[in-house]
Every structure is written in C-alpha cells, then in structure tokens.
Amino acid sequence: MAELTKGDRIVSPGVVKEAGERAGGRSWPVFDWRVLIPLAALAADLLVHALAPVNPGYRVKTLPHFTGFLYILIAVFGLCAVASVFNRNWRERLAHKSWFFGAAFLLLGLYNVITVKLDLIPSLYFPAPERIVQVFTTDWFFMLRCLVYSLRLLLGGFFLGAFVGVLTGTLIGWSPRWNYWIMPCIRIVGPIPSTAWIPIALVVFTRATEAALFLIALGVWFPTTVLTSSGILNVRKSYFEVSSTLGAGTLRNVLSIALPGAAPNIFAGLFNGTSSSFLTLMAAEMIGCKFGIGWYINWQRETLAYSQVYAALIVIAVTFSLLISIQFKIRNRVLSWQKGTIRW
Length: 344
Description:
Strand content: under 5%
Low-confidence stretches: 1-26
Distance between the termini: 42 Å
CATH architecture of the largest domain: Orthogonal Bundle
Largest sheet: none
Mean pLDDT: 85
C-alpha cells in the first residue's frame, strides 16, 4: 500500500477524496452527494403536489401557500448545499443531518397527499399543510404578540423560581438545621404538579398573571432545589476543610466551592424546570389568562380553527427548543470541562 502523504485524509464514502486539499496553499472545493438528499425529497414533494389531482371530496379551497413554502425550502437548502462545497464543517454537519431532513420532508409530503390528494382524514381536525402555512402569512403578527406576552410570564416565573430554588437548595445542602425544617416540606409539597395548584392560585392572587407567575416559579423551584442540594451534598468535605484552614468563612466556602461544585446539578435542575415551566404556562393561560400563546390555542380550539392550533404548536416547539439550546450554550461555556456530557 502506498504511503499516505501529509495532505491525504481518510473520508467517508460519500465524500470525494481530499488528498492534497491545500496543495500549493490553495483550498480545493469538495462535494458530498448527501447534501442533495433534502433537495431530492423536496423536489419529490413538489412534483407530487403539482401533478396529483385534488380529491373531489376535499371541499376546502386550495391555496398556493404550500407550493411557495416548498420553493423557499428548496432555495434555502440549495444555498446550504453550495456553501457546503467550500466549508468543511458546514458540509459535515449538513451531510450528517441530510437523511433526517429528507425523511422529514417526505413525511410532510405524505401528509399533504393524505389530506389534499386523498382526503383520508377529516380536514377540520387535520388541516392540510397549505392551511397551516397560511396562518403564518396572515396571523403572524398576532401570534408574535401572544408569544411575547407568554415569554414575559415564562421568563419572569423562571428566574424567580430559579433564584429561590438555588437559594433553598443551598440552605438545605449546606446547613443540617435548615435541612431538618425545610426538607420535609419539600417532600410533601414538591411532588404535587404545579398545575394542580391552579384553583388555589386563582383564589389567592387577585390577577391571573400573578397566579401564572407563581405557578411557573413553583414548577421551576422544586427540581432546582432538589438538584442544587444534592450537588452541594456531593462536594467533597476535604475541599471545605482545606478552605477553612486557609481562613475562608462560611460565605466564601459556599460561593467559591459549594455552588461551583454543584453547578452541573444546578443546570440539570434548570433544564427540568424549563420543561415544567412551559407545561405550567400553557395550562395557566388556557384557564385564567386573557392573552398569550396558550390562550391563543384554547381560543382557536373553541372556534374549531385547528390550522391556527397547529401553527401555534409549531411556534411553541421552536421557542422551547431555542430556549433549551441557549441554556446548553451557557452551560457549555460555564462548564467547559464537562462539555458533551449532556447533549441537546
């Protein structure tokens, strides 16, 4: 076997060999055929949507929004495919995700065929993709206002619950006296779902927004408290002994040793609290609040506008995924030595 030179590189079967990629100080473009998989799936969806006739039983007016949506996706992934030729990291990431994107787009096309072309399911409860895309073109501003209102409640309750949770968990994990008095209350109150407190919260607080803030904070508080206290209790006692020998007081030990040592557990509690806060927010807005994305879903459901319901669910899914991704970015930056142990 011929000896590989320094410029040679082992590549996947779908990538053209990059031997001597930087020969002569020049970076040569490389193409990976897998980046075309999403484009092929989108082209198949567009072809079927254009050629297959609409089922006569589909009595809803057909709209051009799904076709335009497919064209936008083709343009986006076409640009990504071109950019991947000149960027190795972009190429590897797009090629790795290509099969998933292709399968997702084919499922979208299959759903379009089932709803519009074959009319196999009730269009009232399962609207066609063109109806859902239409919502984003006609009702996007109102949904954005509802989302901003919900994020105000969500972030307010989240930061309140996170602050109280870290404080309570620190007291429990550091002081046996606080542990004696607070831990039994947490074991009784904590496991109760925060949504079960909605009737009481609506009675105690004068406004529904205040009740929603309390419920969201309660949902974040419990996992943050438990995992913070667990993280502090697992820090080695020898660290505190050495620190105290060097003259550090209680506050210094807590801030410099206990909380940094418990940071992985604290972030895990915050992740769990984020999921709980979203569930609580949706339930609180559907019952008591007069605005917000949860209220929007409940309102549209009552009017049987299920295309708006599905559009709002997509907005919630994207927003939740972005918030969790931001948390993981912060975690990876703060805990760079643990990067990759928990992935999203």
